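Example record for the data management plan.
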Amino acid sequence: MTLSSWIAGVDEAGRGPLAGPVVAAAVILDPSRPIPGLRDSKALAPARRAALALAIRERAVAWAVGVAEVEEIDAINILQATLAAMARAVASLRVRPDEALVDGNTLPRLACPARAIVRGDRDVAAISAASILAKTTRDTMLEALDGLYPGYGFAQHKGYPTPAHLDALARLGPCPAHRRSFAPVAQRLLTF
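Corresponding structural encoding:
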């Protein structure tokens, strides 16, 4: 395999939640070590996602994760924070990719050529792998936040605006893990 064949798939998890970081992952798959069953992380059961994440870490040529914390999301907005997390993930790869294939329609600034692919997490194996790593990494982070901020249910809803999360937000007010620039949180800040 030549250097020019290193293709990194890039995806994120956590743009829509009211709490926690946005996490991106970059993965360069090894064609000689295929990983059956890769697909968009949202289409996988949690146990299958976890098993695939382990396989990706073991068999990929390289993988890395980039994070943008709540404070950064509030300071520069969720899109810019997502792009920053993606750029961090690609920059952290131990193998420099020849090209990055990024899920979605907006590209981060990268040191390599890149293409945006709408629904790439469904159609491109390397992006599916990145989707799985980003999701499993973020889920683990939200489970840890659940221990730091009990009562919000972060381990169950992972920060998404479910009825249970909105109810906890109304009862308890925002905690430091909440994104203050998101409307439901900003509205609660006015009453606390």
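Summary line stored alongside the record: The first strand starts at residue 7 and ends at 13.
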